[in-house]
């Protein structure tokens, strides 16, 4: 998944110079799918951490980290959806 994110960043940088609308559409579709997969992966990771049964202090820190991870996944997926569905005029 991380390789996909790096590839997405590189493709976005290349598209800055090419300014291709087709490539922008492809980047948006891949971005939405990639971050949907990352959201599912992070949700499973948070569930496995929950079942590990740590102390309250450690569990509190892990829950904050998990919430921030999911928050960033949703924000990135939303940004790619806006690019995908937005008006290009």
Can you characterise this structure?
The protein has one domain (21-85). It has 89 residues and is mainly α. It is built from 3 helices and no strands. It is 89% helix and 0% strand. It has helices at 2-18, 21-52, 56-85. The longest helix has 32 residues, at 21-52.
Kindly give the count of domains.
Answer: 1
Number of strands: 0
Alpha-carbon distance between the two ends: 32 Å
Please report which band the strand proportion falls in: under 5%, 5-15%, 15-25%, 25-35%, 35-45% or over 45%: under 5%
The computed structural class is: mainly alpha
How would you spell out the order of helices and strands?
HHH
Q: Main sheet, how many strands, which sense, barrel?
A: none
Low-confidence stretches: none
Tell me the overall shape.
elongated
Helix content: over 70%
Q: DSSP helix count?
A: 3
Radius of gyration: 16 Å
The whole-number mean of residue pLDDT values reads 86
